[in-house]
Write a structure and sequence with these properties.
CATH topology of the largest domain: BirA Bifunctional Protein, domain 2
Number of helices: 11
Largest sheet: 7 strands, mixed
Shape: rod-shaped
Order of helices and strands: HHHHHEEHEHEEHEEEHEHH
Distance between the termini: 102 Å
Radius of gyration: 44 Å
CATH class of the largest domain: Alpha Beta
Strand order of the largest sheet: 1-4-5-9-8-7-6
CATH superfamily of the largest domain: Bira Bifunctional Protein, Domain 2
């Protein structure tokens, strides 16, 4: 004998059909979650329908309970299937939206520039390393011995005056040239040798278009048997020609305590001669100070003013521009 369907059974079948249609039509995950709560939540429509099972005859309850579980399982499966579909569509849409077109130009980010002082120092060091020189370093805070005495400066030399040199309370000083590196390097190495030293120097100079109180200097020197002034002149000519090309250069007789004979070297700049370095043969007294025999060894040394070389290289009219931090100036390099 077939049991006639109850109202509760019809409600479950209608609920399944209605919910399945709504789930299939859900356009997004938020809507799908709302449908899950509406149909399968604790206070959802399925719970409300099952709330009437207590009024059923005892013989109908197992059948209706089984049907309810079937409806619940079917709806859960429909929800999971639709959820997977919507999540896949969301990921695909995100991938399409975030796809990079590798043919499009990148976003421009301004690049930094090498400062003209650093640039010319690197260039000069490269030239001398190519000539077989070793890069040497030394302290900026120096003793009187290495800055003056070992370089043959007399006690009453004007350079030792406090009006020219920056002295520290303990008697040390801010080096006035990179020649201090020459003494230190020669003390530690036996001839033959060739070395170049770069760094900041400090003097009580009046700042103007071609002078600065803090400036950069490059020292190069060589010691061996039978080195002559002709070797010095040839080295400077090769260096300046490599750096500037065909530029008028002149040597002028001069005097430095640590070289004899001595000369100053000028290059033609903006229609006038500009001194860029001092040079000469290393004085025998300097040789003795580092333990070399001046009867056996000779050598030459030269000091270059980096800022002035940069002014010639880039046609800069005022040394103060190199320290102005003006982007309009610096972006040209």
């Amino acid at each position: 004998m077939t049991t006639a369907p109850t109202n509760l059974e019809s409600d479950l079948q209608r609920l399944q059909a209605e919910a399945s249609e709504a789930i299939a039509a859900a356009a997004d995950l938020d809507t799908l979650e709302q449908l899950r709560v509406s149909y399968l939540g604790k206070k959802g429509q399925l719970s409300k329908v099952l709330g009437g099972m207590g009024k059923l005859p005892a013989e109908d309850r197992p059948r209706i309970g089984t049907l309810a579980n079937t409806v619940k399982t079917a709806l859960q499966e429909s929800l999971e299937t639709r959820k997977s579909t919507l999540e896949g569509a969301k990921i695909q849409a995100q991938l399409e939206a975030e796809t990079l077109d590798v043919t499009m130009p990148g976003v421009y980010r301004p690049q930094g520039h090498i400062h003209p002082i650093n640039s010319i120092i690197d260039r000069i060091v490269d030239i001398f390393v190519g000539l077989g020189y070793t890069d040497a370093t030394g302290p900026e805070i120096e003793t009187d011995y290495y800055n003056f005495e070992a370089l043959n400066f007399l006690e009453d030399h004007p350079a030792r005056d406090m009006q020219d040199t920056l002295y520290l309370p303990n008697g040390d000083l801010m080096r006035t040239h990179t020649s201090n590196v020459q003494i230190r390097y020669m003390q530690e190495h036996e001839p033959p040798l060739r070395a170049i030293a770069t760094g900041r120097c400090y003097r009580r100079d009046t700042v103007d278009a071609t002078h600065a109180a803090v400036f950069h200097q490059i020292e190069f020197f060589a010691v061996d048997e039978n080195i002559t002034f002709a070797d010095l002149r040839g080295t400077i000519k090769v260096f300046l020609e490599t750096l500037y090309g065909d530029l008028p250069v002149r040597f002028r007789p001069s005097y430095f305590p640590f070289t004899e004979p001595s000369a100053e070297v000028d290059v033609q700049w903006q229609g006038r001669w500009l001194e860029v370095l001092g040079c000469g043969m290393i004085d025998p007294n300097v040789m003795k100070a580092v333990g070399y025999d001046p009867e056996v060894y000779t050598g030459f040394a030269a000091g270059l003013g980096v800022e002035r070389l940069a002014m010639v290289q880039h046609q800069i009219d005022d040394i103060r521009r190199l320290y102005s931090s003006d982007l309009r100036f610096l972006q040209q390099f």
